[in-house]
Amino acid sequence: MPSSQLPDSYSDSDLVAENTSDVDSNQEFSQPPRVSDQSGFSTQCVHSGEPHLKDSGAIPTPVYHAATYSFDKTDDLLRFVHGEDIREEYGRYGNPNERSVEAKIAAMEKTEQAVIFSSGMAAIVGVFMSKLSAGDEIIFFDQCYRRSRDFCVNHLSRFGVVTRQVPTGDYEAMEAAITDKTRMLVSESPTNPHLTVVDLEKFAAIGKANEVETLIDATLATPLNMNPAEYGVDYVLHSATKYLGGHNDLIAGVICGSNELLEPVRDLRGISGNINSPQNMYLLERGLKTFHLRVQRQNETGMKVAQFLETHPRVEHVYYPGLPNHPTHEIAAEQMRGFGGLITFTVKDADWRQTANVVDAARIPRIAPSLGGVESLIEQPLIMSYYKCTPEERLQYGIPDNMIRMSCGIEDADDLIADLDQALRS
Ligand SMILES: *Cc1c(COP(=O)(O)O)cnc(C)c1O
């Protein structure tokens, strides 16, 4: 439109006024008007949670490198301390980059709120420390992230919290282990590295029937493939280091749930200071925008690679919940929209060295811990995460010497398959 036709109201000063005045800070962190609960998942990933009116009209959330935040006048501070204005105060309690990512992940996970931490483990430690007291008990399904078990068994115990472990998927054993001291039931789904899928309906129902809170570490599932809160699970945890960040370039963790349940978690985070730098959150926000595309591709590639491995003469067994022979395939098929990019398999008649030779012969995947990023990664659990365990412990955890875990990135599936084929034949 030629400028001569601009209505008077579009003077420069009005534009400035429109962008800055009458915007209460509460609104800044609410859903931008273009996104609603009805928006598609990709739209949510790209737009949810970001303040609609950003400084200078920047498209990404600007990186707010600030340790502290000012108030114009005492009345503004009073509004804040009375809870009438949600905004930043001091950097240990959070920053605008964290808030935008938290709101985005809460929208993706369909929960009221999300609290972001400096790592997945910081989120796990944060939720347990804010919820449990001496004398309390928690019950775990036993296939679980090694460091989660480590924290509960070796550290929570020092504060008088008892951890009980029951076999993964044994719902009767879990219910039978509940006492009047039990506060929380905990599981991963799918588990690592066996990719066992937990029946969330049953799991949540046991919690509800016994008035015990439930927590699912859904890192391997991702919010694209599964939303545990829809089944009544109270806390949904992610290592954002994995699929949410997705680029093997940041460490973060997040816990999702209701406002009420997460209030003490956020409160303790403000004391312990397990927060993220604004720069780290800029990377996570950027990763989340392509989350849907990446994980869709990883679901597809994961399935193709698993099907290929299943028929390979040198492969003994494949663990992938998308394959009908997986013990929890039926639950997975009912409960998950995709099965992810992580595949575990064993090499036929191979000792640890012959298995290591397969890992070494693969050219595309890098040998590294972690999963979920755009670059494929490969590892032999015996030598990566379980090296310091005794053979008896490895037997107990189900980690044979000939096991390989591969995290598919977003490379071409055909290239990954050809590479694994030559590695297995070498
Ligand atoms: C990686 C991982 C964690 C720990 O997350 P960090 O970000 O590394 O602290 C917890 N649970 C699962 C299932 C994981 O894969």
From TrEMBL:
One of its GO terms (biological process) is transsulfuration. Pfam families: Cys_Met_Meta_PP. InterPro entries: CGS1/2 (IPR044639), Cys/Met-Metab_PyrdxlP-dep_enz (IPR000277), Cys_met_metab_PP (IPR054542), PyrdxlP-dep_Trfase (IPR015424), PyrdxlP-dep_Trfase_major (IPR015421), PyrdxlP-dep_Trfase_small (IPR015422). Residues 1-30, 36-46 have a biased composition (Polar residues). Its cofactor is pyridoxal 5'-phosphate. The keyword Transcription does not apply. PROSITE patterns: CYS_MET_METAB_PP (PS00868). GO terms for molecular function: cystathionine gamma-synthase activity; lyase activity; pyridoxal phosphate binding. It comes from the Bacteria. Belongs to the trans-sulfuration enzymes family. This is Cystathionine beta-lyase. The gene is metC_1.
